[in-house]
Amino acid sequence: MPSSGVAAVDRALSILAAFEDAPEPMTLAELARRTKMYKSTLLRLMTSLQEFGYLVQFADGRYHLGPTPFRLGAVYQRSNNLHDRVVPLLRQLVADGTESPSYHVRHDAKRRLCVFRVDSQHSTLDRVEAGMLLPLDRGAAGRVILAFDGEKGEGYDEIRKDCIAMSFGERDPDCAGLACPVFGPAGKCVGALSLSGPKLRFTRDNIKAMTSLLLKAAIRLTRTLGGPTELLDNALPASAEDVRPARRVRR
Question: Are the C-beta atoms of 63 and 55 separated by less than 8 Å?
Answer without folding.
Answer: yes
